[in-house]
Amino acid sequence: MADNNDTTDTESTLSNARRQLERAAANVDIDSGVVERLKHPTRVQQVSVPLRRDDGTLEVYTGFRAQHDDVRGPYKGGLRYHPEVSAEECSGLSMWMTWKCAVMDLPFGGGKGGIAVDPKTLSEQERERLTRRFAEEIRAAIGPKKDVPAPDMGTDSQTMAWFMDAYSMQEGETTPGVVTGKPPSIGGSYGREEAPGRSVAIVAREAIDYYDWDIEETTIAVQGFGSVGANAARLLDEWGANIVAVSDVDGAIYDPDGLDTNDVESHDERPGMVSGYDAPETLTNAELLELDIDVLVPAAVSNAITVENVDDVRAEMIVEGANGPITFAADTVLEERDVPVLPDILANAGGVTVSYFEWLQDINRRTWPLDRVHDELEAEMLKAWNAVRAEVDERDLTWRDAAYVVALSRIGEAKETRGLWP
């Protein structure tokens, strides 16, 4: 994808991230050189990953690891297996991880990586071999004190287990802290998988309260009833909100009286269950975005809301569950319409926050119970929420700009304190 500089909706993830940075920098007293530096990743590694297929043939895939900025700590970010993984996409996503870690005040910088492959075309044995070889190819660039990957699109806790084992075997010692998102049996944290959805729900709850809405009268639609969307919807349902629509990749279901989110199985639990559920109405994913509701949670894919469909979005508030679900141009339209958008770098930051908890547990070789993970996540999310809310109130900024102000202020202070070497 091209790094466009116009205002069209064809911009790449990297272009979108840079636009958001430039806009936010105008609200922060930060050196222009620091801003220019933050437009570019520190390094992007590209590797060839050979795989012996089950039928004996050999295929070579391309892998990447982008490391954006480590002024506040080791690089941190997911590994995704998807055909469209590229150096440019990883660079843009690593930038978002830098902001996300800073807005949460975590001692990490941003990283992102993956392999350009469709994991659905691989057997489990092939995925394991591919993962282990990828771990070896990027081993010199990662480590508990350097760069800590995690699961992302197309990868899961088992992928992280293979990755950690491959790294540990080559290093000659078990190193659980090299990745997060592992199964608890080998150093993973309880509550990690549901953490992004849980933080989306917490931010939605706080925003509903901020605008003096009654949560029990609030209607919510969730695009993408997967790990993030399902956990967010179920928690908001538990707190009294009215979840009227959810969707998976095949379509959406709608009930104006509210769905029983615990009765609807997520796409991860049973693919096709959402669109096949017995609900009063079925909709397309596009139609879900156009519902007349209070809160819309786009938790499926990037660029779900663009200039082509933003005028049809009727929600009173949007809480971003996916990374980059709204393009820069569409975001500008929503701002002009005074539709609050709670940004991804705050709303879905529960994933990296509990990854931080997992990293701490691995370093200290001590496991936290689930209740402690939930309590600590709630505390961290409220601390970040209050920091962003203070900027909204004091400067009359959008929620996205306020989150960037918080993040950039912390990054700028760290860079100024450390200085430039040599």
TrEMBL record:
Important for catalysis (site feature) positions: D152
Active site (record annotation): K112
Domain spans labelled Glutamate/phenylalanine/leucine/valine/L-tryptophan dehydrogenase C-terminal: 189-419
Alphabetical UniProt keywords: Oxidoreductase
InterPro entries, A to Z: Aminoacid_DH-like_N_sf (IPR046346), Glu/Leu/Phe/Val/Trp_DH (IPR006095), Glu/Leu/Phe/Val/Trp_DH_C (IPR006096), Glu/Leu/Phe/Val/Trp_DH_dimer (IPR006097), Glu/Leu/Phe/Val_DH_AS (IPR033524), Glu_DH (IPR014362), GluDhGdhB (IPR054867), NAD(P)-bd_dom_sf (IPR036291)
Molecular function GO labels: glutamate dehydrogenase (NAD+) activity
SMART domains: ELFV_dehydrog
Assembly behavior: Homohexamer.
UniProt similarity note: Belongs to the Glu/Leu/Phe/Val dehydrogenases family.
Matches recorded under PANTHER family: GLUTAMATE DEHYDROGENASE, GLUTAMATE DEHYDROGENASE 1, MITOCHONDRIAL
Protein name (Swiss-Prot/TrEMBL): Glutamate dehydrogenase
Organism: Haloprofundus marisrubri
